[in-house]
Amino acid sequence: MKLKSILYSAFLVGMVGCADLDLNPLSEGSSEAWYSNATEVEMSVNDIFRSVFWQGYDDAWTDDFTNREALTPVTNATINGEWGTLNTVWANTYKVIARSNTLLLNMDKIQGTVPQATIDKYMGNAHFVRAAKYGELVFYFGDVIYSTDILSLEEAFTMGRTDKNTIKEAVYQDFDVAASLLPESYGSSENKLATKGAAYAMKARFAIQMGDFAIARDAAKACMDLGVHELYPIYEELFLTSTRNPSEVIFAMPRSRSLNVTWNVRNYLPRNVGGWGGAFAPSWDLLHAYLCTDGLPIDESPLYDPKNPFENRDPRCAATIVPFQSRHLNFTYQPHPDTTQVMNFNTGSYQTNNDTRSVAAFASFNGLLRKKGVDEDWLLNYQAENDEILMRYADVLLMYAEAKIELGEIDGSVHEAMNSVRARAYGVAVEQVTEYPAITSSDQAELRTILRTERRMEFGFEGVRYSDIIRWKIAEKVLNRDVYGMLDVAELKEKVIDQDLWFFPMTPEIDEDGVADLSPMYEAGLVKRLAIRQFEAPKQYLWPIPSKEILINSNLDQNPGY
After folding, report:
1. What's this model's pTM, rounded to 2 decimal places?
2. What confidence score (pLDDT) does residue 157 get?
3. ∠ CA 252-243-463, rounded to 5°
4. What are the residue boundaries of the SusD-like N-terminal domain, all occurrences included (predicted)?
5. Do you find a cis peptide bond into 239, omega within 30 degrees of 0?
6. Is the bond into 538 cis (omega within 30 degrees of 0)?
């Protein structure tokens, strides 16, 4: 029994409602003595919104991201039940579910001593968290262990998996309860937790992941009809640290240097400012996905010039990826190997360019750097305090449009939702249709392609792409295409620059999902293959149940193929 307890601790700790010391609030006592007053309950509610429980999807699992020549278990098809990330997701998700269950089952202790509106807020947040986290488990694993009770050790050891369709209905119900109890917003003195809009929006996300388009449509519309959220007027500014709590952000994890809650961003920063020069970089796949300013993909638009890939592109391209020869963090950014000196605007003079591989071998392997959200405050110990946005209004609008497209309900509201997002990117009002490439098509297949491309352009480097490629069932295509970058310097000069082919030697074809085929450039010997991506379908559309859970509990079966 001692061995069993050790091996099964990750699951038990969650389902029984305790936690290891690094996650357990030191001020919180046992559930028998706790929840006796509003202060204790509020502390417990705040606890279920700690960032450790809200990690989101990783861009490294997608085709939007490169880490030089490295891959992840998702992108090299080595994912298994021993993977540390998978085990952390399972354990922490069940921990926060257990805490939500415990909260809901102890609310009677403060009945009559706390205003009902306060109790409703507490309960609404607990229902919201339970819904969001069971939804996350179903998305990752399919059928999972489901309980709304506080379980004993013996019960936890013997529970089997519940059909995901049963859990799905419970998730929808929890979101509905949360929406009925939560406020539309919080006062200036209150902790900013989940809101009514967040419950509707997260319900829409889960429903669209499950292919329940009518439910997704209605949940997104309910969020829109609140009239609380709106698009922030300037796309690029939305992601900066200085833009705090805009109405577009529906749900986020706050970060703050004063509270020592930051994230390390050195991998994203140029080498000229002491960063690691694109160790974590946007992929060429992502760069090629941005439309031109005429609304056409690069293989159809006469505006696209592969030698100047940032010109005449959707503004979100230059807002997400640093354009060549532009001023970035007070340096000129230019990865061209002949550019060995660049302007340092801090000193007003030229200096050695550490962001080209002819000077620094570990400068960005594909020449690209992230720009979205990057600001000078990132240079303070290479730590950033930008809030982690988990849901924003643009996603609600595009989920509404997608659900309507998939249901065959193509009407003016679909164009209005999609064009609102696109017009904001161009900095104009939605009705100024001559100032941006307004979407007018009513063809379902064409709109599906446009919608998928719009999502990719809008949400680059926001942790959205993984959910999209899994639910669209295109991961087997995009993650079986290799990662490419620039040739080594000598070959680059000989085969590309000397032939006047900088930056891209040819224009790739873009398919119906907005995905570029970069292989012809490699086959022509004009680019370097950095890594061979692999994705095994249908197996990898679900993650495996952690191996230690299968080992301990004979009532748990593994997902197919693992």
Report:
1. 0.93
2. 79
3. 40
4. 77-206
5. no
6. yes
Q: Which residues of 414-439 are buried (b: 16+ CB within 10 A; e: fewer)?
A: bbebbbbbbbbbbeeebeeeeebbbb
Question: How far is C-alpha 381 from the geometric centre of its chain's CA atoms?
Answer: 25
* 175: Cα separation from own chain's centroid: 21
Q: Which two tokens stand for residue 161?
A: 């998996």
Sign (positive or negative) of CA dihedral 184, 257, 44, 388: positive
**Helix orientation angle between 116-141 and 38-47, rounded to the nearest 10 degrees:** 20
Q: Strand pairing partners for 70?
A: 67
SS3 labels along 235-303: HHHHCCCCCCCCCCEEEEECCECCCCECEECHHHCCHHHCCCCCCCEECHHHHHHCCECCCCCCCCCCC
Residue 204 DSSP one-character state: H
Q: What is the mean pLDDT of each run of 10 residues along the chain (562 residues)?
A: 32 37 38 80 94 95 96 98 97 96 94 93 97 98 96 83 98 98 86 93 98 98 98 98 94 90 95 94 98 98 96 98 98 96 98 97 97 96 94 98 98 98 98 98 98 98 98 98 96 90 92 96 95 98 96 94 96
Output the six-digit token pair for 498. 């000397």
DSSP 496: I
